[in-house]
Specification:
By secondary structure, the chain is of the alpha/beta class. The protein contains 13 helices and eight strands. The two termini are 24 Å apart. The model has no long low-confidence stretch (mean pLDDT 94). InterPro entries: AB_hydrolase_1, AB_hydrolase_fold.
Length: 285
């Protein structure tokens, strides 16, 4: 199976612009949608290029590129909200009634919200860090503060510091990775999205809004997630520390939690083989 970038690249015209994605696997296999996280230079391909071939062995696997990160066409609105609506647009356009979903960090938050609001569209859910509130760890976390510093005044040194906070094994932060992420991070759409999510001013506004809002935070209503859910976490995650997992593990009725040792935020990359085996067992159970 050819799971190279060019062989799997696809695009889809919708009423809100073009969605781009990667696709591999048997067309008759059950669908699986991979949702990427956020941060400088992120794309779905960069998050999951090492996992696409594995999951395509058992599922028709789609790696969706969210609007506003420099690949799919940008749309108006907050990136987390537009990401969720783009998943529904994507499923509708491909005539997929429902699918299993894997979401990394922000992609996991998107998956949880879809599971609560559109329960008929999500069969099973796998999250990779990022879901829930900080209980005993500082908020914002070390990794998020470094991300905020980069977003306010981008330069390569700050990018490297942030990338190193994402992993347990610093050797994964290669010159090639730094160059790739830097080139993508200076894309105008990606910069606009980053400012909306992680800029200091935007962060302060979000905190004030949450303090004054009568609506509960999304994690407080996770008891509404009805589908089987696998929460995966790196024990050494400095972006979303593992104490965050306690709330979703308790509130989601059919949740199980797997924590990988010597692993940071990018579980699907740093604990690749163990992550893939654990998720396959969950998806095919």
């Amino acid at each position: 199976m050819d799971v190279s970038f060019d062989a799997t690249r696809r695009e889809l015209t919708t009423d809100q612009g073009t969605l781009r994605y990667h696709e591999a696997g048997d067309p008759d296999a059950p669908p699986l949608v991979l949702l990427h996280g956020s941060g400088p230079g992120v794309t779905g391909w960069r998050n999951y290029r090492g996992n696409l071939g594995f999951f395509a062995e058992t599922h028709r696997t789609y790696v969706l590129e969210f609007p506003g990160f420099g690949v799919s066409d940008a749309v108006e609105g907050h990136p987390v909200l537009t990401a969720g609506s783009s998943v529904i647009r994507f499923l509708d356009a491909l005539d997929i009634p429902s699918a299993a979903v894997i979401g990394n960090s922000m992609g996991g938050v998107v998956g949880v919200n879809l599971a609560m609001k559109k329960p008929d569209r999500i069969d099973k859910l796998v999250t990779i860090g990022g879901v829930g509130p900080n209980l005993t760890s500082p908020s914002p976390s070390e990794g998020l503060r470094l991300l905020q510093e980069f977003t306010d005044y981008p330069d390569k040194d700050k990018l490297v510091r942030w990338l190193r906070s994402m992993v347990y094994d610093r050797s994964l932060v290669t010159d090639e990775l730094i160059a790739e992420r830097w080139e993508a991070a200076i894309n105008p759409d990606a910069q606009k999205t980053a400012q909306m999510m992680y800029g200091s001013a935007a962060f302060e506004m979000q905190q004030q809004f949450l303090a004054q809002s009568d609506n509960p935070p999304y994690w407080a209503t996770m008891h509404k997630v009805a589908c089987p859910t696998l929460l995966t976490w790196g024990r050494d995650d400095r972006v979303s520390p593992p104490d965050m997992s306690a709330v979703p593990a308790r509130l989601i009725p059919d949740a199980e939690l797997h924590i990988f040792p010597k692993c940071g935020h990018w579980v699907m990359i740093e604990a690749k083989d163990a992550f893939e085996a654990t998720v396959r067992a969950f998806l095919t159970r």
